[in-house]
Amino acid sequence: MKTLFKALKMILGIIASLIGMIVLIAFLFINFSSEFGAKPKGADLERIQTSKHFKDGKFYNLSETKVEGDINYMKTLGEYFTKGNKVPNWSIPVKKITPETIANTEDSITKITWFGHSALLLEMDGKKIFLDPMLGSVPAPHPLLGSSRFNDTLPLAIEDIPALDAVIFSHDHYDHLDYGTIKKIKDRVTHFYTPLGLGAHLKSWGVAPEKITELDWWETISFEGIQLVATPSRHFSGRGLTDRSSTQWSSWVIKGKNSNIYFSGDSGYDTHFKEIGATYGPFDLAIMECGQYDAQWPLIHMMPEETAQATVDVQGKLLLPIHWGAFKLALHDWDDPIKRVTKAASEKNVHLATPIIGEAIVIHQNTPHTNWWTKHSEE
């Protein structure tokens, strides 16, 4: 009996040691890994504290927003791994492009190339602007903590992306702000535009402070003749366990000489869409989130039907649905967003663009619209 007790004590000791080691590794990783970025401090923090959208150490949405919703964690975890067709059983199509293709875009043309999820290359008035350039393979601080892309290649390798005049970020979540991507492109970017507080991450990753401009909601700035406006969205932020909503999240108005673009970032449906449309619309293109939604968190992501309605609200002439077709971040089937938004757009007479990843939309000239997500099953 003593021998058995001694053996059990030894086993429990080993288990306790392993748990302690895991906790220690997690603590060290969270506190010292560069992936997590940095918190605003000094003059940056002082400016944040003057924002009317910041109170008691965090940013708030215009409407009361319950971020976590009514999540049944055990049920959700089970469905995440078992229920539905959450990833395609094929590498979804990608149209390859070259640096020369980008270099040869005429200044008078406004061209948008979707890189999957919410990453887009916008060419406007001769300028090259990347929106939420998350080009990594996994939207997480470590490859083991997230699922891989649905496509096995990008339209253009990160190393081949030419010099960029600007990069615009909507918020600091891993599927929008990627450490690896920033480290590779930061020296080829003239200027970064971000919501309040997000610049702290960029500075910790080696981006010079003078190359970063942070805007509060409704603040506007002129960039080489292009008007940029940080506008509200309904979401939240955070990259670690203790920094939720410590940096701001935004949508963006991007108005050039010949075209007017709206980029929703991540957002639940709310009245801000109508206000933005009334103030800055109509828009030649509304780039709207459409994916990673669930009835358990209805306030921080839109259902596809709300995406179509939000396009009407902002007075968008053309809808490009994003935030889908790249990663498994919710419980719905991978192609559910595009199927539902296609139906909703038709019912609301919203003109819809559905490009293959890497296929360009040229404002007033070319609007790709094919059901490419069904092609594999039909072959």
Automatic annotation (TrEMBL):
GO terms for cellular component: cytoplasm. This is L-ascorbate metabolism protein UlaG, beta-lactamase superfamily. The lineage of its organism: Bacteria, Pseudomonadati, Bacteroidota, Flavobacteriia, Flavobacteriales. Gene3D superfamilies: Ribonuclease Z/Hydroxyacylglutathione hydrolase-like (3.60.15.10). One of its GO terms (molecular function) is zinc ion binding. InterPro entries: Metallo-B-lactamas, NAPE-PLD, RibonucZ/Hydroxyglut_hydro. PANTHER family: N-ACYL-PHOSPHATIDYLETHANOLAMINE-HYDROLYZING PHOSPHOLIPASE D. It comes from Ulvibacter litoralis. Residues 129-324 form the Metallo-beta-lactamase domain. It comes from the Bacteria. Pfam families: Lactamase_B_2 (PF12706).
